[in-house]
Structures are given as structure tokens and as C-alpha cells.
Amino acid sequence: MLGQTPSPAHALHNFVQCNKYAEREIAHYYSLSEYKLALIETASLALLLIITLCAPWTEARSDTQPLSHKDRDGALSTRLAYVITGDISLDEISREGLQGLSLYLQDHTAIEPEAPMGVDLESDTLSLYPLIYWPMPSSGQSPSQAALARLETYMRNGGLVIFDTRDAASNFNATPSAETLFLQSLLSGLSVPPLEEIPTNHV
Asked: Is 1 inside any structural domain?
């Protein structure tokens, strides 16, 4: 455990309160319109993670380079991961949210994830992590084609990616947010199933 951690409800409130879209079967976006729904959302995502963590899933490494210390750490334990955006505040929210979800899994399931790990899409071994959370920045440079190809391979082999536009609570008009535009640009370079908006009765 890394220091004092927030409660699962509070951490997941910060983590999933503004999600908007979901990718069928692979990438999921969760909406959280009220704080009191935090535990319900946590339980739903926890169930999805149990299925993902328990499913047979292997991916051959595409190179023969030795594992880094970070990769060895990821290989020896179950950890949820988040994409490092370079925004210190955003990365900390990602870490806290996944830490809260990890605590929930420890308390309510037989799965005992270690502390979440920040990953670099350009260099880290993605296949070591069953779930990768990726909050969309409002600006910045998209990953390289090589990184996007690695992400496609990760998803094709059963990895779960959560793309979070973080704008569901504030964007009620037809004008897409900067985060949504970034996601649209990103998806134009990815071969993924079509996205659909979360239905209003989703829990």
C-alpha cells in the first residue's frame, strides 16, 4: 500500500464521474451522474474486472529484449494500469481511482491487485496488465503509430482499455469537448469496434 488511500467510493467518484462512451466488448466508458452511485459503479466495474482477470489471456512478446524492472514488477503481480499523460494532477486522479478500485476488489473478491501502475504506451509491456485506464487530455500529441499498433495488439488479445473523455457531467450540448475531439482523432488511427453511447438505464 502506498500511504493513505481514499475510500473506494470517493476514489471511484473522481475516476469515473465524467465518462461518456463505451466500446462494445473491449473498451468501456462509465458515466457517474451522482455521487451516491459510486459504489454501484464500482461493483459493476469490479464484476467486469473479475471476468477479465480470470479469463485465459496470453500474448507472446514481439521482441526478445529482457524485461525491465518495471515489467518484472508487473509480471509478478496483478495490477491495474493507467496511461501516463504527463499531467501530474490527471495522473494522480487516475492512480487514486484505480487504487480505490483495487481496494474494492480486495475487500469483495478473491482477487488482490497490487498498487496501480502508470504505463508509457511507447515503451512499456502492455500485456502485463488486464486493464488500462486512459483519460483523454484536452490537448497534446497523439501516440506514435508504433504505440497505437501495440495498443491494438493488446486489445485483440483480450486486454481491456477504458478511454475516458471526462466530460459527461459538463457537456450537455452538441459541441464536442476538446477531450472528445482528441479521442476521435486517436480512434481514427486505431482499428477498433465502433463506439456507442452508454444507455440512460445503465448501472
From this structure: no
